[in-house]
Amino acid sequence: MKEKLEALKQAALSELQGVSDPQQLNDLRVKYLGKKGALTEILRGMGQLSADERPVIGQVANDVRGAIEQVITEKQEAFRAKETEERLRAEKIDVTLPGRKLTQGAIHPLSKVIQDIEDIFIGMGYRVAEGPEVETDYFNFEALNLPKNHPARDMQDSFYLTEDLLMRTQTSPVQARTMLAMAGEAPVKIICPGRVFRRDDDDATHSFQFHQIEGLVIGENIRMSDLKGTLLQFVQEMFGDNTRIRLRPSFFPFTEPSAEVDVSCVRCGGSGCRVCKHTGWLEILGCGMVHPKVLEMGGYDPQKYSGFAFGMGVERIAMLKYGVDDIRHFFNNDMSFLNQFARI
Amino acid sequence: MRVSTEWLSDYISLEGVTAEELASRITSAGIEIDIIENRNQGVSKVVVGYVKSKEKHPDADKLNVCIVDAGQEEDLQIVCGAKNVDAGQKVPVALVGAKLPGGLDIKKAKLRGVLSQGMICSAKELGMNDKLLPKELQEGILVLPEDTEIGRPIVEVLGLNDQVLELDLTPNRSDCLSMVGAAYEVSAILGRELTLPQPEKNLEETGNPASDRIAVRIDAPEQCSHYAARYIAGVTIGPSPLWMQNRLMAAGIRPINNIVDITNYVMLEYGQPLHAFDADRLTDGAIHVRLAEAGEKMVTLDGQERRLEPHMLVIASGGKPAALAGVMGGLDSEVTDATVNIFLESAKFDGGTVRKTSRQLGLRSEASSRFEKEVDPAAVIPALNRAAELMAEYAGGAVHQGIVEAGDAKAEAKVLKLSLEKLNRYLGTQLSLLEVKTIFSRLHFPCGDADTGLLDVEVPTRRGDIQLDVDLIEEVARLYGYDNIPTTAIEGPTTPGALTKAQAVRRSLRKLLTHGGFQEVLGYSFIHPQQAEAFTGLNPAAKAVKLAMPMSEDRGVLRTSLLPQLLDVAVYNSNRKQPDLALFEIGNLFHTDEDVLTRQPEESPVLGLLLSGRKGTKQWNTQPEKVDFFDLKGALESILSYLGIDADQVSYEANQPKSFHPGRSASVYVGTGERKQLLGILGQIHPTIQQELDLEDTYAAEIRLEPLYELANSRVQYRELPRFPGMERDLAIVVDEAIEAAALIRVIREHAGELLQNVRVFDVFTGSKLGEGKKSVAISLTYRHQERTLTDEEVAAVTEKAVLALEQTFGAELRK
């Protein structure tokens, strides 16, 4: 019997040597080790053995089974490894092909600039105030010290709806409305972003519709030097720490003294380039100390309170910040323009 | 205002200050100067020559050979082609070696075989603007006055050694619409002395009283506070002196004749417009300043007949208007070459009146623009005298004695009190009393101490813009230099900065939508009236608001919907091979219920969404699908869920907003019962419109933001995670096609009891197997109990109830 087992082992091992695929391997496993396999067949004769022989033959049988199983396992692993290797080879991809992107839109560059400016001023303790786009003549002009027939009304031709109603030409009426809403309470610190409208023929630098951001501070001891300090902090946060400002006297009916504010050129830093027309400076803001009449009409006693106000054009700032050369891009809404702003 | 530096030097020394430096200092003191014009456009070696003789060129019909004395060692032979050249003329001669504007170099040359030693020049060749030249000088060579000195450089003769500063004046600085005003400003900036003309001293009058010839009466004192006149007899009309013509041209005014030039010259000098009438052509010498009568007509200097209105101010003589006060003279009393006697007017007309008339008639002039900004009442008399002085000198006139006038000049300077403490507190500076007084003395504002630290400052009438102490503070600040004001931080209580809820909601929407692939766009607030009519979805009953004077029909009304412009953007991009679009805009719509607007229209903030074409981009491994209704609805559902608005607060109703596909559009509502309100509309754009616009299938929505501001809720309350497994049951039922999914879900929810957690439709289809007008809806139901594992039996029991209810309510059949 022992010889039979040895012969079986030899036969099995020799047959396993020539196995070339997993199916064949499985067939051989069944043939030799299966329930009806050769080994079982031999072991059926165990009953006829003596009690002494049984453990010995049993041991031999186990050894034979072990030897065959080991070879089968090795073969199986080899097949599996080969199979895996083949699968991986087949699965190779061209990693240089483009991926599927997340679909990502962008907020409009003007919204982006407005949000950036809002955030700077919110950080400085300002609230964001809003007002209607259709204004009364009173809030758009008169409450800002621009009575009817004032020559300064020439500065901005307006879109009227009726004799008394017009598309606001500036965000300044929000100042007047806020003052009344605050009912004399101080301090007031607001910025007012929004759409404004002026009768202008559209060209590379003009649009009949554009956006402004207005700022207003009222308190008991607000100085022109505070205005300078505020604007300097703003432009440095907006355009970089090295930005400088320059104030030039100017005229607005609702402020006195009034100033135009230039910043050192955001492109060349002040050394002179095409953007700043080789002056080193860019005009970006109008500002001044709130006119006593405006304070008074807003319900603040000019003897007790003073304030400053400033206003800037959002399109102008966006054009400078992003190097956009034509204001009309902002309202044409060409995707190849707008997509450029889809980034942090 | 164009300020000639040559002229300015009459009043103030500009020694050692270049035009560029001056411009930069004026700019930093508040009047912007962007342009400095050099009157010499590149002329050199051009001198005055005397044409001694002129002969025909032997070989050319159109050329002449002139012998010219140009003050050189020898006479020059010059070939000249101008028709008007003649012996005995004084002319500009470009010598050999001369340079002319445009890079022309003059060389010795032979013209058709004849030697030419230079060139006789036209005004244009000397770089002069021919629009400003007297008509007779626009063609041919420039003929100079007979007394011009031979050999003198032409740049001196024509005043080309001059630089003109273009002052860009803000409306408050009309005082600088005059040379004298500009001189005051420059004097304050440079701190130099002024020398002003003194007509009172220089004017010589004859013995005849002017009042024998003329009289003046004001019938409209509100429109004309002061009217003064002089009578100048025996003038000879002719050209004005060359220096005066040069200065007028430098200022941009064309010389006409001595009388007109003098009125213009004095207007430029004092800022006070004057008018010269031919006294003999006035109906009579008694002048009435009055408002026009309705229907009255007159012919103005430009030959136009004007129909006057009762708000217009006229200068009338003999019952007829002879001039439109401050705007334009009348043709009938115009000064002509035959004029001998002059009625010279200098007056203060009301700015508003002049402005209204000049606007209405479209007549804007140097004079009217000065009156509009209110002229200096103190200049009326000096300007009148100055012009009379010049007419005596340059037109040979005899100035009759006395000024004939009506009204009151009210030319008294006002005195303002200024506190030094306030000035420093206002500016954040620490200026001393002396520093402040020095600045006022440079401005020629006399001032004295009223009290300790309180100044009495006298403001001359020429500075009508200065009304309050803060105006004086600005004067100090601008001359002290804005750059010298320190930079400080605001003192006092701090305030917290924040966005309002509405602002925060809009930011959240922008963030969510852009991250979801939507691109923000910005449209115009004005649309075509037809667009407003076509898209009325959110507010069909309201009316569009019209602009009184739109720039074009396309932009005639305020937008009542964001959709027209979202569609415009879609068309624009689709025409540029960008048809796959996901767009949004946040903006205001305008509605009114009034036929004639009497109050501000309602402005409502709205979110517009548009999807068109396909989702994503086609590439090697992706075949993007067409967008559909449910992409749009899904975006809206995401928005609402992100804003914390429960889905059970939201309902969709298939109805048909205007311009949408009738079967693929809906209105969406928030709230239930009495609190239910319209949130928006959404759906496919009507296929006819899509076709007209040549767009692929396009879906759009308009969502009112006000309900979102109100309902948005950022509060998150943690719910315990389920400890026991849920159980799912799928149902497939067949119902009539018309039955909406929402109705099925509602019935299931009502009958499946509290164990039911979630209901989800996962398949819908129709087909012939189901029968005509039927559809199959597959629904997944999820059950869960918080405290234990559910049994098959209890789940089967509640599902059975739901199925029964579906059968009873909708006649649904369970598919097996």
From TrEMBL, chain A:
Pfam families on file: Phe_tRNA-synt_N, tRNA-synt_2d
An annotated Gene Ontology molecular function: transferase activity
EC code: 6.1.1.20
Limits of the Aminoacyl-transfer RNA synthetases class-II family profile domain: 111-320
Domain of life per record: Bacteria
Major enzyme class: ligase
Catalytic reaction(s) noted: tRNA(Phe) + L-phenylalanine + ATP = L-phenylalanyl-tRNA(Phe) + AMP + diphosphate + H(+)
Main location: cytoplasm
Residues binding Mg(2+): E256
Cofactor annotation remark: Binds 2 magnesium ions per tetramer.
Cofactors, names only: Mg(2+)
A single Gene Ontology CC term: cytoplasm
Oligomeric and partner information: Tetramer of two alpha and two beta subunits.
Similarity comment: Belongs to the class-II aminoacyl-tRNA synthetase family. Phe-tRNA synthetase alpha subunit type 1 subfamily.
Name by which UniProt lists this protein: Phenylalanine--tRNA ligase alpha subunit
Gene symbol of the encoding locus: pheS
Automatic annotation (TrEMBL), chain B:
Domain TRNA-binding: 40-155
FDX-ACB domain segment(s): 722-815
EC number: 6.1.1.20
B5 domain mapped to chain residues: 411-487
Family annotation (CDD domains): PheRS_beta_core, tRNA_bind_bactPheRS
Record field: transmembrane: none
Reactions catalysed, as given in the entry: tRNA(Phe) + L-phenylalanine + ATP = L-phenylalanyl-tRNA(Phe) + AMP + diphosphate + H(+)
One Pfam family, short name: B3_4
Keyword ATP-binding (UniProt): yes
BP term (GO), one: phenylalanyl-tRNA aminoacylation
Keywords: Aminoacyl-tRNA synthetase, ATP-binding, Cytoplasm, Ligase, Magnesium, Metal-binding, Nucleotide-binding, Protein biosynthesis, RNA-binding, tRNA-binding
Complexes and interactors: Tetramer of two alpha and two beta subunits.
Protein name: Phenylalanine--tRNA ligase beta subunit
Classification lineage: Bacteria, Bacillati, Bacillota, Bacilli, Bacillales
